[in-house]
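#onboarding

Welcome to the new folks! Below is a worked example of what a typical request in this channel looks like: someone posts a single protein sequence, and someone else replies with the predicted structure as tokens. Don't worry about understanding the tokens yet, we'll cover that in week two.

Example request:
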Amino acid sequence: MEDEVRETLTRLLTDHSQSLKRLVETAERLLRIDKATGHMVLAVPRSYISDRDFIGLLLLSKHFAHGLGLTKKETMTMMEIVESSSLDDGIVTSRLTELSYRGIVDRTQGGEFSISFPKAEYFLEEARRNMLVEWNKSELPGENFESAESRMSPEASRRLLGQEAMVVLMTRRIV
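Example response:
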């Protein structure tokens, strides 16, 4: 009996490399890293990403770029975030405060910002869901998530949205 319980509970065990693998699998639906610069390249339209999520994605991509040896540090200053995001510094400050309050972003003693790795998976899933909602609310005439998705190959849909979103879409069409 105790062995069965232990075996069942081992499914919950994880380590840094497993977390990183899951994180990359989700991240590749939203972003890429430029090999030459280490900068984030969005894989989805910017209009579907909120300012808060965009800043979080910038910090996450900085973490990835540092891990790839493309940048010297994994943190960003406020000015680097403002320059990279093209957002007003007041907006960046407000969004960083939200992300920090939620534990998604850490602030160093030197005043720089980085993604909180333990919360990165949660953040990325939430950002992906938010992007799907915005895509579905698209204001293009006759354009919504289902019509855009129906023009994609099944493989492209799975890559962009993940398997679970395909199930939801398929269910919607059947109902």
